[in-house]
Amino acid sequence: MKSVPEAGFDARRETTRKPKDYLGPIFVNLLEGTSIEDYLEKRKKIPQDALTQTASNLARSAETVDFLIPGFHKRFLVYPKTPIDDEAYATLDKAQIPQFARETAPNQSLTVVKIPLNAWRLDSTDFQEELPTFPAGNGAIEIMHKLGILLNRIYSKTKTLPLDFKLCQVAFVTGDNEFIKLVPPYSLSEEVNPDELAKRVEQELSAIDPNNPHENQIKALQSALSIIVSK
Amino acid sequence: MVSNTPEIPNISRPDLQVPSPDDFQHSEGTYTSPEVTNRKIERLKLIVQTNRKPYRILDLGAYEPDETGSKSLDQIVLASEAEKISTNRTGNMDALDYACSATPERIVRIQSNVEGAPVRGNSAHGVLFLRLGTQRGQFLDVAVKAFSTPSRAFIEYVNTIVIRERGIDTLDPIAVIIDKGKGSGKSNPTSNSKITNEPIGYYISVMEPIRSIDRLRLVRSGYRSLLASDETHRSYLEYLSKTGEILAQMHLKGIFPGDAQIKNFALRQDGKVIPIDFENTDIFNVDFFLTNPEKFADMSQKALSVLFGSLNAQTTPPINFFNGYSGEHLWNAFNDVVFNAYASTYEELVLRKADAKELSVDQFVQALEGLETIRGKVRERVLTPLMIASKH
Questions:
Q1: Tally of structural domains, chain A
Q2: Is there a domain that residue B13 lies in?
Q3: What ipTM, to 2 d.p.?
């Protein structure tokens, strides 16, 4: 009896897809070294096909890389380590907030986050006022509700919220009931007010998707957030 | 990492209630209720977990495409297998299931606690996303399409296998399971009617982390905004160009998707675009562009025109990619985004065949003339406002 793999399609893809063998060593090399400078130098030389494609790529800065090794079904977000991010990760972990797992790199200056292959940039989708079908799909109203619940948990347990929140700080993980997750590097602050955060989301939705109304999405977000506010 | 998930509070403020399903039209046109979906899942579980015989492997090598172009391959295979997959109430149901050779094992279990797969679905078939268990103790994450006409499930299964065999990458087919049901109803299994009495064909494929291109916000925001955006966002145009490349590859392999809408192209994480949904695909011989040049040009034009129409369609939600363009500008825009990529790939493939001595000089010339015929037909289609209006 063979061991049971974590995800079903992995077992089949082994037989149907050839791994890009050369990407594994490039990734290993990227994590080696002793300083951020080492990393940044190697970062410049990463081939384009090692990067997760645009509509999915979770990197928000030039220093961050969303590295994809398709043949091995691995994906990692790598960026220079910061105390603020480490502290926020520990806080969320202690508060039992679901988040992407981390791995240790030989280069101690780096943070390596394991990203599932089915994680997408939330701001890559359109935000039509749409309810979910079951279980085939979810609409933007449910997405905003889930986002509110995530932020609700973070705020009620840590009294912090993401600073300068934008939708690109959130990933949409298909096939997972907890399908909204914060994308590191984190920057949590006690200064952020839930109402202000909801307002920022509303403004961003209006800016990035002006063709659709978002009233009910914002209501869903505010509603999920308001439960903690009233506590 | 976190193991205990805290209890999720429900939306409870009366003044901020989430609207009811009736308030919105979903992309499927109707709201698919959990009850209907669960009934379909329960029925599939019943089929899989009762005493059905192991799946048959369909020997597609025994079938030859019709070079006259009068029948596509799926029609030929279906005609031969029709007796076995007929939906009348008699006969041996155990003989109806097929599995592709890549899955020589039986599905034995359907995960009872179905995880919602939050893929923003856009399917007329109420696609189910399930986790299945196999004989060898492995899991398969799958997409299951339920058809009220079981032979349609079989057709999609046959087409997908052949398309992959001809080198076009798409989701891996697993099996087709055909259930005659207990009645003879014809209504749609995605509706709220009594589905337990209707025949259903289930087409099962591997579910990979893909997304339909039409749901990308920057594709929906239109060509103008993409042209004006930064370099990163302009890569979204590459996704559209890849649809043209894929269509050229398919056409030159005798494959003509009848529903080449933008929503039937999906994006993988590695940036590869793959075609999906082959229920209405016609497959002919691989040198169809030589043996039936006129029909080849017509069918190629049709697929490209459907793609064009889907970028300017009042679907739900609407997509108006070429908003603001008309006449020759519209053709130029479609040419830039899709047809140039189609033509480049077409020429490259034909040249490769010529280099490999697979084409004579006359055939080479004929193939390139075929491309110009397609270009002329597609251009005419794009420049005809009446046809655009009728599409809407």
A1: 2
A2: no
A3: 0.81
